[in-house]
Amino acid sequence: MKDIALRASGLGKCFKIYSNPWHRAIEWGSLGKRSFHQPFWALTEISFVLKRGEFLGIIGLNGAGKSTLLKILSGVLQQTTGSYQINGKVLSMLDLWADFNPYLSGRRNIIRGADLFGFPEGYVHARLEQIREFAELGAFFDRPVRLYSQGMVMRLAFSMFAFLECDVLILDEVLAVGDIFFRQKCHARLEELIGQGTAVVLVTHQIDALQHYCNQIVLLHRGSVLYQGKPREAIHQFYRLRISETPVPERRLPQCQDWNDKAGQQGDILWPADDVFTSVPSDSQDGVAQVTRLALCSSDNEPGTHFAQGERVHFFVEFHVGQNIGVPIARITIYNIFNVMVHGKDTFQHELAIPQQVYSGQWLRLHQSVTLNLEPGEYTFRVLLAAMSPDDYNRVENIPDDDVPAKCEALCNIRQAGFFVLTPRKGKGMKGLHWGICDLPGDCQLQVVEG
Amino acid sequence: MTLFAMVRQLFHHGRYIWFNAVNDLWYRYAGSGLGIFWNVLHPLLEIIIYTLLFSWMLSKETVGVDYSVYLSAGLLTWKSFSETISRGGAAFFEHSQYVKQLAIPIEVFPAKVALTSTLLLFVYYGLLLVMNWVLGRPPCGEYFLLPVLLASLQCLGFAMSLSLAHLQVLFPDIKELVSAMIPLWRWTLPIIYPETVFPDSFRIWLHLNPPYVFIRSVRDLLIHRSLPGLTDSLIMTGWLLAFLWVGAFVNRRLQAEVRESL
Predict the structure, then answer these.
(1) Structural domain range at position B256
(2) Is A421 an 8 Å CB contact of chain B?
(3) B positions 232-261 inside 8 Å of A (CB)
(4) Which residues 17-46 in chain A show a CB within 8 A of chain B?
(5) Disruptive mutation site among A24, A27, A76 for chain B (greatest number of B CBs within 10 Å)
(6) How does pLDDT run across B77-126, given as a tens digit for each residue?
(7) pLDDT tens-digit profile of B165-215?
(8) Of B97, B92, B76, B102, which Cα lies nearest the Cα of B192?
(9) Residue A227's beta-bridge partner residues?
C-alpha cells in the first residue's frame, strides 16, 4: 500500500448543461424535483493504480476527457462518481503560463509560485540557483516575464516544476518545450524525478515520449477507457482510432481484391474497385487538371492509412484533364512531419511509356507503389501533375537540367492530398529496423581476423 | 462551521493573498511611471470638485463646518467599499485562468481584491489624517479604532462580493444588474449630501442599508472623535457576521459549479 502514489477508482464526471442560466435557479427553487439540464458525461469509470516512480500516460483524441481527468486529479474539478487517493503531495502543471504575473521577474514569479503550491517560506530560495541554471534564461531571469518569448515562459515554468518536490506530478503536454537541447534536459530531469520515486501522470501527443517512459497508458475515447495497459498496444489502438475518426470516409474498409480481374477492362494498369476511393473536393483545386478521386492501399489490397514499416503501399490517383495538354508527368511525393520531402519519383523518372497527347475531357489514372522503408511516424503526401510539349519531351536529354522545370507546365498540385501513419516493426537492432529517417538498400559484412 | 472553515482557508493562503494584493496595487497603473500616485489622484480630484460645488451651492448651515472632511471620509470609504464589491464580484472572471487551472480555494480571489482596496483605503486615510493635522486637527487616541472600523467595512464588502462573484458566474444577468445598481446605491447613502436632508422619522430606516452604520461611525470618529455606541457596534457586528456566513455558505455550495461553468 505504501508504494502506491495514486489510486483512482471509478472516476466519473458529469457536466450539467443549461440552455438558459436561469434554469439552474428554477432547479434550486424546485429543491431538486425538476431538472432542466442536460447531463453530459465527460468521463466514466476511470480506474487505475500508479505506484511510486511509475509513469502513466493518458492519450486520446481531442475531447476524449483527458483534461477533465487531469483537472479532477489535481483537485480543480470535483468528480461526480468514484474516488481517488493520493499519497503525498500533488503538483499539477496544467497550463504552463497560467500563473505567471507578467510584471514580475522570473525570480519573483517562482517565489510566488512556490507559495501558491503551499511550499514553506524559504523552501524555494534554496533551489533558486538550480532553477535559474536549469532554465537557461541568463539575464532575463531577473526581468519581467512580459518581456519573455513564449518558449522562455515555458522553460521557466518547467524549471520551476522540475525542482519542487512532490509525490505525484501531473503534466499536460509540456514535453514539447524549447529547443532540442532543452528537451533533452527536461527528459533527463524527468528520469531523475522518477528515480527519486515521483509518480508522473502525463498527457501528450508525443508518441515517442510515451513509448519511452510509460509503464502504463490509458487510452480515453469519449470519456471512457478504450484501452488500458502496455504502451505499444495503446499507441497502436490510438492510431487506429485516429484513422477511423478522421473525416475522410474510411470506416467501411471494403476489400479490393478484385482489382486484378478488372485490370484488363480498365486499360493496362492496376486499378481497384470504385468504393475504395475517396473523393477530393474540386473547390480546393484551381489548376487545369483536377484530382477527382484517390486511394491508398496496402499490399494486401486493403485501403487504409496506417501501415507497418517496410510495407509496400499503392497510391491511386485519377485526374480529369480540362484542356488539351502535351505529355503528362505525374508524381506523388511523401513528406515527413518536419516538411522534409522524403521521397518522390515522377512518371518520367520511372521511364514509363507515356502518351504524347491528352485531350480535354479525358481522364488520367496514376498508380504508383512505394516500399515504405522509413522510420515510424506520420507522413503526408502531395499529388502533382504537369505537362510538357511532345517536342521538348522527346529531346529532353538535350535540354540543360536547369531549363527543364521551365518547359513543364504545372496542371495540378495538391499539397496535402492525404496522410498515412507508419507503425514500428520490431527489428533485431536497437531501434527498430534501422537508424535514421529511411532504410537504404545495402549490405553488411563483419569478420574476425586473428591477430 | 462553514464560516470557520473558510476563514481558516484564507489564513492558510494568507501569504499568497498578501503578495498578490500588494502587487496589484503596485501594477494597477502599470507602465505609467507614477504608479500609485494615480490611485490617490482620482479620489482627490473628486473631493475637490464636490467640495467646491457644494460649498458654493449650499449654505454653510446645511452642510456643516467640516464639509470637506465629512465628504472625504464618506467618499473615500465608499469608493473602497464599492470597489471591493464590483471588482470582487468580477474576481472569478478576472482570474478565470487561475480558477480553471489551479486547485486553490477560489474565495482567495475576492479576498485578494478586498485586501487591495483595503490597503489603498489605508493610504487614503493616512493622507486624510495628515491633511487634517495640517488644517489644525491633530490625531488623537481614539483614532486607533479607525483601521478596525474600516477593515470591518471592507470585510462586509468582501462577504457581499463573495456571494456576488459566485452568482455572477452562474447568472450573467446579475453581473449587469450589479454594475447598474452600485452607482444608485451610493445615492441611497448620505455620502455626498448631509444626513440632515432626511426627515428624522425616516433616518431609522437607513440602518437597513448595511454599510450605513459603518460609514457613519467612521465619520463620527474622525470628526467628533466619538467611539461607536453599543447599539451601533451590535448592528455592525450583526451585518458583518450575517453576510460573512451567507458568503461562506454560497462559497461552499457553489464553488464546484462555478469552476465548471467558467
Answers:
(1) 2-261
(2) no
(3) 256-257, 259-260
(4) 21-22, 24-25
(5) A76
(6) 999 999 999 999 999 998 888 888 888 899 999 999 999 999 989 988 98
(7) 999 999 999 999 999 999 999 999 988 888 888 888 888 888 899 999 999
(8) B76
(9) A219
